C-alpha cells in the first residue's frame, strides 16, 4: 500500500557564522519530509546535505520529492538516486527504519568551541557548565598562531579535559605532521580529518599520518557516505570514524558493518535541525560499541532557537532525544 508524503524546504540563519577550513558558513538549508503511513502513524525526516561533503544538493533532493506526486510505495528507499544519500536517510527515518532499540540511558557530549582566539573566551563558560571534552575547529588561521592558541587553551581547561582538533581537511601533509607532533604531548583525543578527503594521495597521507604519530587520527569528510565507510573498513583503518548519521543513506547498514568490525565510532552533528538530530541521536543511542562522547554539543545553533536540538549539556539522556517534537518543527516552516 502507498503512503502519502509531503516535504518542505527550509533556509535558516545560524546564530553566529560558523568558521571552518572551507570558509564562513552563515545559513543552513535542507528539506523536511513527512510520511503519513498507509498502516497508520506519521514519521518525519530531514535531508540536510553539507555543502563541502560530497556533491548532494538540496535542489536535487527537492526535485526528486516533487517527482513522487505526493505518494510513496513500500520500495521507495530502493528508488532514491545514489547521489541523494541524505535524502534516502531522511526517508528511512520517516519510515521508522533508522535505528534499533536504545542501548544506553545517557551519553557524554563534547562541547564545540569557536574557531581562533574566540575559543579562549568561550571555553570558561563550557567548563563552568561541566564539559570536559571539547572540539575545536582548526586550519582556519595560521598554523603557528593556532598552535599557540591551543597551548593557551590547555592552560585554562581543568585537569582531565580532552580536546578534539578538527581541521576539516585544511592542512597539507607537512602541516598535519607538525600538528600531530605538537599534539603528542597534550591531552588531544584525536585530530579529525587533517588532510583533504579525495585529494591526490590523500588516502595514503591519512594512513601514513595515522601510523607515524601517537595521536589518533579520525576520518570525517573521508566517510561522507556509506561507500566511503566500507572502503576504509576494507583498507583496515584503525583510527576513529566520525559518523554524521544524518548524511548516510543506509545508516543502519553502515553502522552494523562498523560495529561488526569493532570500529571506533564518534557520532557527530552535521549542524542539522532538531528533526535530523533526533534521527542521528537515536542511532547513537542504539550503537553497541564503545561509547565515545557525542559530537553534538553544538547548540544553541540557530537564530531561531526552536530549530535547535536538546540544550547542550555534558551528558545527554535518551529520554531527552525522544521528547523532541518533530511535528512542531515541521509546522514551524509552513
What's the arrangement of secondary structure elements?
Layout (H helix, E strand, L loop, with lengths): L2 E18 L2 E14 L5 E6 L10 H10 L3 E2 L3 H4 L5 H10 L11 E8 L4 H11 L4 E5 L5 H14 L5 E5 L6 H11 L4 E5 L9 H11 L4 E3 L6 H9 L5 E4 L7 H10 L3 E4 L6 H12 L8 E4 L17 E3 H5 L3 H7 L2
Parallel strand pairs: 5-6, 5-12, 6-7, 7-8, 8-9, 9-10, 10-11
Antiparallel strand pairs: 1-2, 1-4, 2-3, 5-13
Helix pairs in contact: 4-5, 8-9
Quick overview:
The protein is of the alpha/beta class and 334 residues long. Helices cover 34% and strands 24% of the residues.
- The domain tally reads 2
Q: What order do the SSEs take from the amino end to the carboxyl end, as H and E?
A: EEEHEHHEHEHEHEHEHEHEHEEHH
* Most strands sheet: 9 strands, mixed
Number of strands: 13
| Low-confidence runs of at least 5 consecutive residues | none
CATH class of the largest domain: Alpha Beta
Bulk shape: globular
Kindly provide the radius of gyration, computed on alpha-carbon positions and rounded to a whole number of angstroms: 19 Å
Q: What is the percent of helical residues?
A: 25-40%
Mean pLDDT: 95
In the CATH hierarchy, the architecture of the largest domain is Alpha-Beta Barrel
CATH superfamily of the largest domain: Enolase-like C-terminal domain
For the record, give the distance between the C-alpha atoms at the N and C termini, rounded to a whole number.
Answer: 27 Å
The amount of beta strand, in percent, is: 15-25%
CATH topology call of the largest domain? TIM Barrel
Amino acid at each position: 500500500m502507498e503512503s502519502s508524503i509531503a516535504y518542505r524546504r527550509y533556509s535558516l540563519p545560524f546564530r553566529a557564522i560558523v568558521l571552518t577550513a572551507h570558509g564562513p558558513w552563515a545559513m543552513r538549508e535542507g528539506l523536511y519530509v513527512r510520511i503519513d503511513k498507509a498502516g497508520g502513524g506519521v514519521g518525519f525526516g530531514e535531508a540536510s546535505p553539507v555543502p563541502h561533503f560530497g556533491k548532494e544538493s538540496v535542489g536535487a533532493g527537492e526535485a526528486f520529492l516533487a517527482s513522487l506526486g505526493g505518494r510513496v510505495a513500500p520500495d521507495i528507499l530502493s528508488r532514491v538516486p545514489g547521489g541523494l544519500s541524505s535524502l534516502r536517510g531522511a526517508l528511512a527515518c520517516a519510515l521508522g527504519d533508522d535505528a534499533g532499540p536504545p542501548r544506553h540511558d545517557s551519553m557524554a557530549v563534547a562541547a564545540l568551541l569557536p574557531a581562533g582566539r574566540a575559543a579562549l573566551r568561550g571555553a570558561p563558560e563550557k567548563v563552568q557548565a561541566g564539559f570536559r571534552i571539547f572540539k575545536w575547529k582548526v586550519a582556519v588561521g595560521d598554523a603557528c598562531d593556532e598552535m599557540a592558541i591551543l597551548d593557551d587553551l590547555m592552560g585554562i581547561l581543568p585537569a582531565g579535559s580532552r580536546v578534539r582538533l578538527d581541521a576539516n581537511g585544511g592542512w597539507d601533509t607537512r602541516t598535519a605532521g607538525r600538528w600531530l607532533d605538537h599534539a603528542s604531548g597534550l591531552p588531544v583525543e584525536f585530530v579529525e580529518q587533517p588532510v583533504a578527503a579525495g585529494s591526490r594521495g590523500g588516502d595514503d597521507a591519512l594512513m601514513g599520518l595515522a601510523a607515524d604519530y601517537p595521536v589518533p587520527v579520525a576520518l570525517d569528510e573521508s566517510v561522507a557516505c556509506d561507500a566511503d565507510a566500507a572502503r576504509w573498513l576494507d583498507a583496515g583503518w584503525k583510527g576513529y570514524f566520525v559518523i554524521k548519521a544524518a548524511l548516510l543513506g543506509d545508516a543502519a547498514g553502515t553502522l552494523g558493518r562498523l560495529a561488526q568490525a569493532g570500529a571506533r565510532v564518534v557520532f557527530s552533528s552535521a549542524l542539522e535541525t532538531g528533526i535530523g538530530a533526533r534521527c542521528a541521536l537515536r542511532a547513537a543511542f542504539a550503537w553497541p560499541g564503545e561509547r565515545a562522547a557525542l559530537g553534538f554539543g553544538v547548540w544553541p545553533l540557530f537564530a531561531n532557537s526552536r530549530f535547535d536540538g536538546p540544550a547542550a549539556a555534558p551528558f545527554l539522556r535518551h529520554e531527552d532525544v525522544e521528547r523532541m517534537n518533530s511535528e512542531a518543527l515541521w509546522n514551524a516552516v509552513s
